[in-house]
């Protein structure tokens, strides 16, 4: 049985994945905080990926890494820098030094959150991050590409939408990923015999999807769930979104600011911010190859 490291194992995606993968792999779970309720096929190894020594220790001797660890929403630059830039680099570099070939990287829809909702994007879509968090995910994708091309590592980047037992709002109807579809995608990323570098969307087979996920399908992904089954109940309690957030796939992340933002859509500035956002929406949408 393969030994698979899950970084950031105490997070909610880690929790769903542990449940779904139970018995399929020996799981080495790592995080800064202890993981609760270990099963017999799970081991916990404490580690802070912002420290290279820890990254080297937790990645030693595993067959594959599912890298979920890091700061998982928009936030202060220093936190993102430590966890998602330095931490992500340390995980890839430690994998290389330890001879771990396969890395599954949990990137995010927010690496491309500034595409409009009336656009359909595929795995070739150029990153259009909607915040510093999104930039850090685009960085991880670029790093994975480098480690694949230069060192022959096998890197599977999953631009995850929102993992939950059910979609929670209108935006999530387009980007929802059910726990069992998450597990299918991760298993595919671990087991596929011929991976070099791939970007796929971590979403279920949602009727309202903004993604052409044909690259995942080409590799064998067959999602079992569709958020549409929850659409009526979600829309019945739907609240209006900020107009800028409503225009873009990244939603509120497109307007969230940790710092004072001169472009924030406050009443006096809303028109200018809209013009800027609309100009951004007019850019070419995808690069080829
Ligand atoms: C993400 O990337 C976050 O990690 C998650 O917490 C959600 O906010 C999700 O995106 C989303 O877009 O709903």
Description:
- With 289 residues, this protein is an alpha/beta fold.
- It is globular, with a radius of gyration of 19 Å.
- The longest helix has 21 residues.
- Helix 1 crosses helix 6.
- The chain contains ten helices and nine strands.
- It has a seven-stranded parallel β-sheet, sandwiched between helices. A two-stranded parallel ribbon has the order 7-8.
- The chain binds D-galactaro-1,5-lactone.
- The site of D-galactaro-1,5-lactone has 6 residues, from loops.
Task: Identify the notable features of this structure and list them briefly.
single chain, 289 residues, alpha/beta, seven-stranded parallel sheet
Question: What can be said about this structure in brief?
Answer:
By secondary structure, the chain is of the alpha/beta class. It contains ten helices and nine strands.
